[in-house]
Amino acid sequence: MLSLPKLLLLLAVIGAVWYGFRMFAQIQAAREKEGDGTKVRGARSSRRTIPAQDLVLCEKCKSYVTPEGSGCRRGDCPYDR
Ligand SMILES: [Zn+2]
């Protein structure tokens, strides 16, 4: 037989689960809005790009340098600035 305290506890547990689920759904909706509105789940990971620079091979010193950077700091380096 369900007593009143047990019934209240059951209601509280159900309410907490329902409230938690609603918050979870709101967070999910906010995350999907964060992008450009597209709901493509697979493209989400490709949007995260790491800031990186492409390196180019310097013919003079045979090492990889950033084209916008200061090169290899040798006198005849074409990428030295
Ligand atoms: Zn160089």
Low-confidence stretches: none
Strand content: under 5%
The overall pLDDT average reads 81
* CA gyration radius, whole angstroms: 29 Å
N-to-C order of helices and strands:
HHEE
| Tally of helical runs | 2
Largest sheet: 2 strands, antiparallel
Number of domains: 2
- Using the alpha-carbon principal axes, give the shape: rod-shaped
User: Termini distance?
Assistant: 85 Å
Q: List the quaternary state of the chains.
A: single chain
Strand order of the main beta sheet, please?
1-2
Q: Please give the number of β-strands.
A: 2
Helix coverage percent: 40-55%
- Summing up helix and strand content along with how strands pair, one would put the structural category as mainly alpha
Small-molecule binders here are: zinc ion
